[in-house]
Amino acid sequence: MSKQKNAARKNSKKKVILRSAVLTTGLTAQLLSSAPAISNADPAAYDGDSFTYLSQYLGIGAAYAEPTDHPNAQLDLTEGESGGGSPGGNTGGGTVLPTPEPSYVYTPVDTPTASTTNSTEESIQVLAVSAGDLTGRSASLIRSTGQSGTPRAELRLNAEGLTLASQQAKRGETLAYRLPQLKATDMQIVFDGKTLAPLANNTNKLSVSTADVGIVFPVDRLRLSQAAERLGVSSDQVQIRIQIEKSAAITSESAWRKIAGAVPVGDAYTFRMLASSGTKAAEITGYDKRYGQQMIPVPEGSDTGRLGAVMLVDGKYVPIPVTFKDGQAVLHTTGGNPVLLVRYELPAASGKWFDSALGEASVKGILEDREPSSALDRESFARMTVRALGLEAYGADASSLAALRSAGLLDGLPDNAQTGGAITREEMIAILVNASRQFDLPMGTLSTPSGTSAQDAFPDSGSISDWASSYVEAAYAAGLFQGDRGQIVAQRQGTAGEAAALLVNLLHSTGLGDVSTK
């Protein structure tokens, strides 16, 4: 390499500083930034990741502490110099692939001087709300440029730092890594399977986000053991690689068959999880009866009230739940398949009480072309439920009822309610309450019930079957339904309009859908 190229490379080197902090309730922000802490800040009462908590309740943009023993990283590599890129596309869950070649080389450099340690643009923010110690050596960031000129980055998570953070964190807490300096960057997250054991035992979630994309997943429900079994090793012997990058939307007619009328909006993104051992790699096919979140940008000027989201399953796009916040779409998925925002046409208003729910159900791809007044059989309701909750990967190609059975949503229903035939209102209610229980989705209260219980509120409550009573009471307390002209009519056949209202209310109650403020 020429002296001129060496000089150019030297001048282009970027230092990436690791700063990480784990805070406890009552720890003042002055420890880190000289900013006063809000005295009534309570992490236990805040529903969000730890970075958002700190920035909103402690009044600081980031919590930083410079570990004295952490090797920082500098990068000036291109894809060609580093030994090749990562594989693209999405293979089947049972496929064993060649191990991806590492795309980057990590080079330790001296700790930056004090003048550079305050740069919020060159830092990894590693946060856990409730802990009491600083976490050093938690991660390293490697930045480079691909052959096409696309910025690339690799975040390597350190077992020691993650274990400490998990030990200090509350049970079920999200450990969040934020890289606000990265945008429009192909991202890879790399860590060892053995790293996840303490997080799984503490039911922690792991979050990694840049300025425009991110992922949050439940560590204890990651389907890692299945992938490791295909590789012939145990889960703690694999390396895990999560790839987040833009990908081309599939345009074939067959790929869009299940979402007729949807129009793609913005870029498609691939969230791919791989487990590797030696020369082989296998797909990790998502999470077992839990939702993770995948964040992608919303194109400027988009009306989020008309946007839905889809995920590619077995070569076909299918609907998944989505919410919107701060210019991002938060896609709630049970797996890591390619995802995309879409737009649907709103239906004409019918003047019915469930017009709002019908509009949202159409935008989310739930209602399809059904008339609101049309009576439903169990397979039709199951199809609406699969589409509303994004459960296609549970085997909906065989039948939607089979997918609900596989996901546990028919547990507790009588045998005769798990086959074909007309579906009753109490059966619809029971299935949706089962969804909240099976997938650990607590139902918040949407409206104050008119009575202390469904039994007291409806004069025909005696029509509720004994097996359905607890389901109906849970749904009533959460405000999923309010009855039909003052009655529950539990044994009447359900309609598409009623099913749409129940499903939309479930999405709102569990946080899988945005509650309209209009």
Write the layout of secondary structure elements.
Blueprint: H1 3-12, E1 14-22, H2 50-57, E2 72-75, E3 77-78, E4 96-98, E5 108-109, E6 123-128, E7 139-145, E8 151-157, H3 159-168, E9 174-179, E10 186-192, H4 197-201, E11 205-210, E12 214-218, H5 224-231, E13 239-247, E14 263-277, E15 280-283, E16 292-297, E17 307-313, E18 316-320, E19 322-325, E20 328-333, E21 339-343, H6 355-363, H7 378-389, H8 400-407, H9 425-438, H10 454-457, H11 469-478, H12 496-510
Parallel strand pairs: 1-6, 3-7, 8-10, 9-11
Antiparallel strand pairs: 1-2, 2-5, 4-15, 6-9, 7-8, 10-13, 11-12, 12-16, 13-14, 14-15, 14-21, 16-20, 17-18, 17-21, 19-20
Helix pairs in contact: 6-12, 7-8, 7-12, 9-11, 9-12
User: What helical percentage do the residues reach?
Assistant: 10-25%
What is the strand content? 15-25%
**What count of helical segments does DSSP give?**
12
Largest β sheet strand count, sense and barrel closure: 11 strands, mixed
Terminal CA distance reads 62 Å
Question: Regarding quaternary structure, how should these chains be classified?
Answer: single chain
Q: How much is the average pLDDT? A: 77
Count every beta strand, where a strand is a DSSP E run of 2 or more residues.
21
- Judged by helices, strands and strand pairing, the structural class is alpha+beta
Our Rg estimate from Cα atoms comes to 25 Å
Shape: globular
Low-confidence stretches: 5-93, 98-122, 128-136
